[in-house]
Backbone:
C-alpha cells in the first residue's frame, strides 16, 4: 500500500509546479503559529523519507460533500461544508484508504477528521502549517472498513481510478 501511495505522491509532484491554494500566505501563518503540540499528538509525515512525526496544532471534524481534487505540488481534497469556506486538505499518506475512499465518494456527504499540522513542504520553503485528513467516513462506515471490504480487483480498480482520473484532472 505504501508503494502505491508513494507513486501517487510522485505523480502529484510531477503534475504541477505551483503550491496549492490553501498554502497561500502560509509563511506568515508559520511565524504566528502556536507552539507545537507534545510528541504524542502527531501525524505521520507525508514525506516517507522523514523519520519525525508532524506536530498537530489543532484537530476538527467536519461533514460536507467531497467535491473533488485540487492539484498543486500535492493532491488536495476539497470538502464543501455548508456555512463555511471549502475545506482543502491533504489526505494523510497512511492509511492509503483515505484518498481512495474520498475519490469513490465524489459528490457525496462524508465526515473527515482534519488535523492542522506543521509539515516540511520543501516547495513552500520548509515548515508550513497545512491541513491533513487523518480519517474519513460516511453513513455506511469508515474508509478503512470500506477498503478492507473490497476485493483485490476492486482495490486495484480504485487505485487506477484515482491515478488516471483525479491526478489527470478528469
Residues:
Amino acid at each position: 500500500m505504501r508503494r502505491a501511495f508513494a507513486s501517487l505522491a510522485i505523480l502529484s509532484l510531477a503534475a504541477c509546479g505551483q503550491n496549492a491554494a490553501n498554502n497561500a500566505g502560509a509563511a506568515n501563518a508559520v511565524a504566528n503559529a502556536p507552539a507545537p503540540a507534545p510528541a504524542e499528538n502527531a501525524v505521520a509525515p507525508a514525506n516517507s523519507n522523514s523519520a519525525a512525526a508532524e506536530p498537530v496544532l489543532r484537530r476538527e471534524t467536519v461533514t460536507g460533500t467531497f467535491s473533488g481534487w485540487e492539484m498543486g505540488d500535492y493532491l488536495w481534497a476539497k470538502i464543501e461544508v455548508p456555512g463555511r469556506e471549502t475545506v482543502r486538505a491533504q489526505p494523510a499518506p497512511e492509511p492509503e484508504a483515505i484518498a481512495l475512499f474520498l475519490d469513490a465518494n465524489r459528490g457525496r456527504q462524508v465526515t473527515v477528521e482534519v488535523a492542522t499540522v506543521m509539515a516540511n513542504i520543501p516547495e513552500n520553503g520548509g515548515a508550513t502549517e497545512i491541513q491533513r485528513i487523518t480519517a474519513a467516513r460516511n453513513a455506511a462506515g469508515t474508509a478503512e472498513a470500506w477498503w478492507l471490504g473490497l476485493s483485490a480487483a476492486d482495490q486495484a480498480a480504485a487505485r487506477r481510478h484515482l491515478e488516471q482520473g483525479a491526478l489527470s484532472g478528469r
Q: What stands out?
A: The longest strand covers residues 54-71. The two ends are 23 Å apart (CA to CA).
